[in-house]
Structure formats: C-alpha cells, structure tokens
Amino acid sequence: MVYHLDEHDKRVIIRRFLELNPQLVEAKDKAGFHRSVRSHGTSWLEAARAVSDDYFDRPERLQQGGWVEQGEQTCPMCGEVIEGQLPTHLENECTAA
Length: 97
Ligand SMILES: [Zn+2]
Hints:
Helices cover 48% and strands 4% of the residues. With 97 residues, it is mainly alpha-helical. The chain has a two-stranded antiparallel ribbon.
C-alpha cells in the first residue's frame, strides 16, 4: 500500500512513536535518530527535527545506529509491534494508516 502523509501528519506520528517507545529515546542520541529517519526521505527528517528536541534533551553522543536496531517498537497508528523501521511499516504494512 502506498500513500502520502503531509508533514504535519508525520510530526504527529513521530511524537506518538517516541511516546510509545521510550526505550528508543533512552538508547539513542538525537543525531542517530535523525540519520535513521533521513533514510526515508527529507520530509521525515524535517518532521523529526521539528519534534525531537522535546524528547532528546541530552547532549548528543558519538553513538552509531538508529531506531531500527532497538528490536520491538510499537506502531503509533495501528498499535502493532513492528520489527522494521516505522516509515517502512507505515508505507507497506500498516493497517490503520
Ligand atoms: Zn501500523
């Protein structure tokens, strides 16, 4: 399934995603989070930048990786536990989007 979200929707999704997956905020630095999001396009990166300051308030660390490697994550749209990256789930698998 292919669909398009505008940037406002993406911000809402990222906020829900981070709230549902606090372990990702604990484990990741903001730069790593942005790198992961950027691989899905600049519109996702812009949305992430707009909201991530509210969640990542620690100094950025030299830590590699992104949100995908953290194992189980919860989709903010359908509530399912997903193993891949959120944008990929939303574009291909999510039943609620
Ligand atoms: Zn979903």
